[in-house]
Please model this.
Amino acid sequence: MISLALTAVFFLAWETAGGQTKDPLLFPRDNFTVETKTVKTSAGEKKVTYRSYMHIPYVANPVDKDFESMNVSVPFEVDGVVIDAINAPILFVIGVGGYMSVNNMRGGFGGPPASGNRVSSNTDLALAAGYVVVSPGCRGRDNKATDGTYYGKAPAAIVDLKAAVRYIRHNKGVIPGNVNWIFSTGVSAGGALSALLGSSGNSQLYDSYLKEIGAADAKDNIFGSACFCPITDLEHADGAYEWMYGTIPGRSGLVDQELSKQLKAFYAEYQASLNLQGKNNFGTITADNYDKYLLQYYLIPSANKYLRGLSDEKRNEYLVNNKWITWTAVGAAFTFADYVAHVGRMKNLPAFDDFDMRQPEPILFGNKTTNASHFTNFSLQQSTGDKNAEIDNDLKTAVNMMNAMYFIGQNISDCVQYWWLRQGTSDNHTSQTVIANLATSLENRNKVVNTFLYWDAGHGADEDAEDFITWIGNVTGFFK
Ligand code: DHB
Model:
């Protein structure tokens, strides 16, 4: 009994005396600067005072600590009122764009841009709401060592983000905030990584990579995921793009119609294989009925919200300029073809795995010694002229490890319950089926999915940032 008590005392003494220096992954809670910022909310400006921790390495064996480190902001006073963030939600801000690296030595927050000038970005709004904001850096497709090798190709970014989540968990009780209420948020490629982080929790597929960089031995599932215009499901995105934009002329006219049809056929096959069930007994969503589904559940509601929010004068003006929309007592009506023509085609064919390998995605799927690789059989076959060419197994695994849809479909990982999905209706960076498939696959697995498309908004839009912050407070029960 006595020896047990002595052992306990000894252990505690080790923890407080030697433990701090021995654990390379201990959050340095006393090492901060005090900063203030003014946050614009719809209820006026708020002055937030917060502790700022910069460039905290989150792995023990970083490949490059400039990237594998995080900034943490902990609010402690809002408009002169002292608050305690000890049990607050943690907003985990993925600042990745274009699948590029995020260098934390350059500082600053990532996250969605300010939505107009009306309110601040969701990261600043989170601070003003008393949440902890964590901004991890991570490797990306552009990272190149002095010896010419690449060190940020897929799946490096998601491995780093998981390591950052593990670091937070590892520091439970030391780092302020509730480590069981981590919400990721990101835009575009960052939105795709947010979806992936949310859907691939604790997957063993990443274990060896995490071990290699000395990630904390902790869980990496999170609580909620916000995905703004996620550029995900990359290996199926070329076909989905042709499904939507195949017959719409781009900047250099119509794309090759024969190849467009082939890609569209691959997409139709893929869509059927997902076996996704639409809302309200719509039945299985297919390439043939997806136009109707998008109109009914996403596009018409979005147009209606927008048009009903306008004054009669402004609405009339909008309708005069958009004769493809009919407006009656029941709301807006238009065809999918007119909507797609209104948006217009942005990318070439193939939209992602392009033949010249200049798009972000082939460069994402390079490896240590190769800057860019085709990651779909279609583009590989077209480029090589070899009709039997196939991408190799290592690449196939890397492609899976970057795709939220893979994890949701396989049901092999811990998938978060709470999802916030947003995209502009005029965002032509990927097909609108990508976000709708993400939403539907989650809904079909009984997740709580809050999805909305902002009417006429382009890439990166975030028009209801305050609602997002309120939603976090509500689903956690932090706002009582
Ligand atoms: C992003 C945009 C793209 O069109 C794309 O293919 C990949 C990433 C982005 O904005 O992050």
Q: What stands out?
A: The domain at 4-229+463-476 is CATH 3.40.50.1820 (Rossmann fold). The two ends are 45 Å apart (CA to CA). Residues 290-308 form the longest helix (19 residues). The pocket of 3,4-dihydroxybenzoic acid is lined by residues 97-99, 188-189, 231, 352, 359-360, 429 (CB under 6 Å).
